[in-house]
Amino acid sequence: MAAEFPSVAAARAALLTGEVTAVTGAFGFDSTGKAALLAPHEFGETTPLRSRPVDTVVTDRDITPAAVHADRVRAVLDAIDEGRVGKAVLARTLHLTLDAPLDPEALAARFTPGSDAATTTAFAVPLDAAGRVGHWLIGASPELLVRRTGRVVTCHPFAGTAPRGTDAVSDRAAVESLRASDKDLREHAFVVDSLVDALRPLCCELDVPDAPRIESTPAVWHLATPIRGVLADESVTALDLAALLSPTPAVCGTPTAAAADLIAEIEGSRDFYAGAVGWCDASGDGEWLVSIRCLELDAAHTGVTTWAGGGVVAGSDPDAEVAETEAKFRTVLTALGL
Ligand SMILES: C=C(O[C@@H]1C=C(C(=O)O)C=C[C@H]1O)C(=O)O
């Protein structure tokens, strides 16, 4: 049985004392809360995942209604007007009940590159260490929170989204309007500014492009900014960086604490959604993804919970926010064969 760590602090201590040579797993939206981190016996050895078709039959479905989400967006717009936050990211929750259990690793394989839901890195994390016995966090996030390789730190934040078009012409038009969207550029700048503020004191070099570029998943276009820094102090590990940077304003908001309070008031607890998934070894190297475009499978493996969110800033349109969540739900729904 691999060692399990129910918090980032416990995993960090085990790495520091040399008790383990690596940790892998997930921590939640609240990085100080319950985590599901473990030390695999043979770190680095993974079983190749094979994508198999799934025949999913949904027997029950419960989603945050579009009208409720639109009202919540209006509530955030009011909070922005009142000066409580500059940006907050609101998410809808979708619960599905399936007629037959899903195999967690076979489902994760449905997210791997080349599959219909392909984005970047697929993961399947058992959540037992966090007390969610038998539950799994499964998905494929396109968003790199942070990677540390020696002294080099890389972040690749996304913020600002447009649903993909249905044909080449509308898809191109979606890119052009995203590139020119003042609202999306402001949404994006909150994230880059916050990462730069957090990294600047830790880095002796920091390269930040002047303007975001466009990247895609099969479901959406995003504004993205690759950030590269060189650590002044090599003792700062990838896990330290992930816990420091998460949640970024890509999934939370600005200021962080005020946005997290607003989200908790409106949505309730997010658990593992919008936290981080990844690994860190004893040298401090590691890689953490933002846990979005993912689902939690319950202990019976028939209950699925998934989330889709988007950033709200002054000028956001409630109906467009609803449409953005519909597009983002596609990644998980496609993986489920729905
Ligand atoms: C919150 C999500 O996505 C995040 C929010 C984005 C946005 O508001 O434009 C874009 C990418 C992600 O950083 C999600 O997919 O649930």
State the gist of this model.
The chain is an alpha+beta fold and about 350 residues long. Helices cover about 30% and strands about 30% of the residues. It starts with a strand and ends with a helix.
Query: Got a strand count?
Result: 19
User: Count of helices?
Assistant: 8
Under the CATH scheme, which class? Alpha Beta
Helical proportion, percent range: 25-40%
CATH architecture: 4-Layer Sandwich
The outline comes out as globular
Output the radius of gyration.
Answer: 19 Å
Structural class determined from secondary elements: alpha+beta
Percent strand: 25-35%
Which ligands, by name, code or SMILES, are bound?
Answer: ligand ISJ
Protein name: isochorismate synthase
EC number: 5.4.4.2
Family: Belongs to the isochorismate synthase family.
Domain Chorismate-utilising enzyme C-terminal: 69-328
Description:
The protein is of the alpha+beta class. The chain has a single domain (4-42, 59-335), classed as Anthranilate synthase (4-Layer Sandwich), CATH 3.60.120. It contains eight helices and 19 strands. It has helices spanning 8-17, 66-81, 104-109, 168-180, 182-199, 238-245, 256-267, 318-335; strands at 3-5, 22-27, 35-39, 58-63, 87-98, 121-126, 136-141, 144-149, 152-156, 158-163, 203-207, 213-216, 220-224, 227-231, 253-254, 276-281, 286-290, 294-297, 303-312. The strands form three sheets. It has a nine-stranded antiparallel sheet with strand order 1-3-2-16-17-8-9-14-11, covered by helices on one side. Strands 4, 5, 6, 7, 15, 18 and 19 form a seven-stranded antiparallel sheet that branches. The protein has a three-stranded antiparallel sheet with strand order 10-13-12. The longest helix is centred in the middle third of the chain and has 18 residues, at 182-199. It starts with a strand and ends with a helix. The ligand C=C(O[C@@H]1C=C(C(=O)O)C=C[C@H]1O)C(=O)O is lined by residues 89, 91, 143, 158-161, 187, 222, 250-251, 292-293, 307-311, 328.
